[in-house]
Amino acid sequence: MKSVSEVDLLAERAHAGQADKIGVPYIEHVRAVAAGLAPFGDELVMAGLLHDVVEDTDWTAEKLAGAGIPERVVEIVEAVTNQAGMTYEEKIRRITADPSATLVKISDNAHNSRPDRAAQLPAEKRERLAAKYRTARAALWPAASRADVEAIVRIVNPALLAELDEVFTSSSVPAGGPA
């Protein structure tokens, strides 16, 4: 079984030369997502580091398993990976069926929604992505406990804390998450 540092190195190599939408080395995004998952243990940190590797590199789920990535981590990565012909809304619904995948996607969404990152995008793209991420949060957050969402948001994007209060006080979701 791989350690978190070995998985970090794997992710760094897999994403070498890639940049995100604002030109930052892509590894910084996956590391930020993983940092938001630190309160939940190594398995979720590994999944955060690898959450885009199947989608954005030549790595496959089978190759990850063959490289010694724990089976549950591979399952989580597969759960958050885009599938051909699946809409974003369908993807979010599929993710919310897996509590661990939900937390990974919440951390991913929180990092993608950071105001400092969004500010570097053209206005039209910034507005389109903000709406997409807000819609996803409306489905993701109620699928987790408020405490878990808050733990991630505090680390990855504290600017979302006000929205968190709105979602959990105005919805019918109990403070501990869905029953």
Q: How many strands, what sense, and barrel or not for the largest sheet?
A: none
Helix content: 55-70%
**Mean pLDDT over the full residue set:** 92
Number of helices: 12
User: What would you call the shape?
Assistant: globular
Contiguous uncertain segments of 5+ residues = 172-179
Series of H and E elements:
HHHHHHHHHHHH
> Strand portion, in percent?
under 5%
SS-based class: mainly alpha
Rg value: 16 Å
Question: Layout of SSEs?
Answer:
Blueprint: H1 4-14, H2 26-36, H3 42-50, H4 53-56, H5 61-66, H6 71-80, H7 88-95, H8 99-112, H9 115-118, H10 123-140, H11 146-156, H12 161-170
Helix pairs in contact: 1-3, 2-3, 2-8, 2-11, 3-6, 6-8, 8-10, 8-11
